[in-house]
Amino acid sequence: MLLLSCTNVSRGYGATPLFEDVEFEIHAGERVGFVGPNGAGKTTLLRILAGLDEPDGGKVTLHAGARLGLLQQVAAFPEGRTLFDEARTAFDELLATQREYEAAAEELATATDEGRRKQLSARFDRLGELLRHHDAFELDHKVEGVLAGLGFKESDFARAVNTFSGGQQRRLLLAKLLLSAPDIMLLDEPSNHLDIDTTRWLENYLAQQPEGMLVVSHDRYFLDKVTNKTFELHARKITSFPGSFRQYVRLRDEKFERELKEFEAQQEYIEKQEEYIRRAHYGQLAKQAQSRVKALDKLDRREKPTKVSGPNIAFSEVARSGDNVFHVEDLTKRFGDLKLFENLSFDLPRGKRLGVMGPNGCGKTTLLKILLGDEEPTSGLVQRGHLVFPGYLDQHLAILDPEKSVIRAVWPDDDPQQTEQKMRDLLGSFGLQGEIIEHPIKSLSGGERSRAALAKLTVNGANLLILDEPTNHLDIWACDSLEEALKVYEGTCIVVSHDRYFLNRVADLLIVFANGTVEVVYGNYDTYELLRQSREANGERRGVSPPVSGAKGESRAPVSDAKSAKRKRVFPYRKVPDLEADIAAAEKKIADLETALQTPDVYRDAPKLRDTMTALEQTKDALARLYQHWEEAVELNG
Question: What is the C-alpha separation between 116 and 118, in angstroms, rounded?
């Protein structure tokens, strides 16, 4: 069912249009990811759709009496109202209907006139059916479920709304929008201020809703899990792509390559025709030349295609370090009675990329400082390898002097070989060029400062990059550029990030802080997610520490308080390395099958599509069993 349509919508400021003659439709069940570079006009278009701003031209039409809701960025709540009561206001219309229903019931109980009784009875039945259709007799249960899903505790329900932080109040706005369930939800960065567990809950919740949605987000993993269609705002136009975010990336690149080839072929044709016209514009062939001139005049000339792209980030060559960059053994850190982590052991080989993830305050930055030698552990061993030169990018970008110009802040103090042209070329590779490199650091946007700080690390020749939330201020395309640069970086990298898509593309191994425990996962975020889902499927209780790497790289299970409660073997005995080899093969097969599902020949062949999807599901089931087998082998093999 068509819910909303845009027809020839344009908007700009002064002589500069943000977008022109934009047209699209949103139907029920479509969860549309809305992407585009910063400043392209995504939020402006959302405000126009919500009726908070007027277009310069064109119109927006809500169809079939559809209700539309926008996730507000700024909260304003009445004084003294509790969290639960404010969330419950999402049902004001239903609550009013409920009061009518109760009033009709009371009047019906006392009515004596038969005609009036029939009227009240019909009204009572109609209101009751309406309330049942909207599950209106379960409203409090719905409120509790959504608030809990968004990270609020039961003890928070009776607190006054104005005692919560700004981030918590924005979560309440999100809760109210979800509870009100409008036909179309406009979600502008809905996962901001959410930890990974809460974001995961929101992904699952939205993916199950029947409403139409338009979602603006920099969280590519979120978009990939939630959306089934993508709008790209680029060059003042909107282009629609089917499928998830990953499918959008593939289709966008294919479209660009196809259009570029078509453009180049047309340019070659035009050049050949013009060359013929130059050679034959007189004499016996002049008539033919004139005919070709007319044909060129009528030709619908293609514009050279463009696509959104990030800066061409590239790290310079670095000196080779020792083979083992870090050896960490039984590392523990406490502050008084507060335990951040304990008995953490891992080795970081040269050239590998270690990701660190977990909720705020769990100890991620403290771990980085211990590795850098800026903080002492409570106990345990940290050994740094030979010829390791670290470069640290903290969240506040303290590596840069805010008062200096960009070029001077990045310029190394003690390197006489650097020239201004070299520095300009380096900054240009990070998307910083022209007048901006003469501006003071403090005047830059967050994304520009992040890129300048990365350039500073490059010019310092660090062969160990330690990056604390490097994607915080980067848009999707700058993140993509950084990921590609790190994947070919010759040194070693440790990165703390909440960006699951980033960790999935970059990390070779992960340190995960979760539920008061810390573990080492040998793989990327998808590997961890499969492990997590396997544990949930087996009903493992939250907070049980999974296998972590031992001091010499061997796997060992955490020590239980009840060692005698060793679980019985479910699977036949197999060596851990053999299981890990099977896991790697299964993961590759899944990746190959998912790639095959995105090819046109598979979609055109119904039996092949069915067989491929069956094979994919069977391989995923097999992989889940392999992970269970691997966990059992790690724990029980002697």
Answer: 5
